Amino acid sequence: MVSPKIIYQDESIAVVDKPAGMIVNRADTAKNQVTLQEWAEKKFQISNLKFKISDTLSPSDNFINRAGIVHRLDKETSGILIIAKNEESFVNLQKQFKEGRVKKTYFAVCHGEIKPSEGEINIPIGRLPWNRMRFGVLPQGKEAKSKYKVLSIKYKVWDKVSEPLSLVEVYPETGRTHQIRVHMQYIGHPIFADELYAGRKTSKRDREILPRHFLHAAKISFLHPKTGKRIEFESPFPKELSEFLTKLQ
Fold first, then answer.
1. Does the pTM of the predicted model rise above 0.85?
2. pLDDT digits (tens, 9 = 90+) for 86-99
3. Active site residue 28
4. Which position among 17, 74, 194, 206 bears the catalytic label?
């Protein structure tokens, strides 16, 4: 497993580049795997005295139990994550996320030609009652809003048949679990190689040439918790994604 790369750090925060395949938070399903949480605890000496994540915990407990990790990325999603190095920064950044002050940009490759080329998806998302591993569009779900912009249309040739693929920028304005993946599936353009949302047959074929889904957290902008100044960071495509793009027509 490739370790996260530190893009920036000071006494208050660290901004890291998470590799695809690394789980962010410690959980029963992550046994025998090094998580980003464990890596952060050792790297930044954040003691985890007990593992008991709960919204009823004090800010101090939450900071320790999450090892300063303010937000999450799915296991196969690569890109930028913010880690707070102290309780004050953790609380500040959590408040910024809640108030929508943090601006995020993702890159995705989706099946089909997305039209219109710019749009907004504002559809509630919740965990599916019949499959707890998946999320979907549910009337009783939480508000979820994503804006997108098509950057280019690529083509992948399958058995002499050319399939259009859309390279898109996505700007999530809320932070629901699997939000972008669910929203792109909802509009009929699931993310390439997404095992949960692109369909079993499609994802199996996709993974013959790309062994992970094509979703990358490329940019993040927020107010520094100590100085109050807006700062921005970027993460380039990892090798497997850039190589995949060069194979497309």
1. yes
2. 999 999 999 999 99
3. no
4. 74
Look at the chain and count its residues.
249
Domains of the chain: 5-247 (3.30.2350.10)
Token representation of residue 49: 């005295």
Structure confidence at residue 51 as a pLDDT band (50, 70, 90): very low
Per-residue 3-state assignment (H helix, E strand, C coil) for the chain: CCCCEEEEECCCEEEEEECCCCCCCCCHHHCCCCCHHHHHHHHCCCCCCCCCCCCCCCHHHHHHHCCCECCCCCCCCEEEEEEECCHHHHHHHHHHHHHCCCEEEEEEEEECCCCCCEEEEECCEEEECCEEEEEEECCCCECCEEEEEEEEEEEEEECCEEEEEEEEEEEECCCCCCHHHHHHHHCCCCECCCCCCCCHHHHHHHCCCCCCCCEEEEEEEEECCCCCCEEEEECCCCHHHHHHHHHCC
Alpha-carbon distance values, 103 to 147, 194, 215, 222 (Å): 12, 24, 17, 7
**Tell me: the pLDDT tens digits for 115-126?**
999 999 999 999
Q: What is the pLDDT of residues 177-204, one digit of tens each?
A: 999 999 999 999 999 999 999 999 999 9
Q: Please state, as a whole number, how many other Cβ atoms lie within 10 Å of the Cβ of residue 143.
A: 11
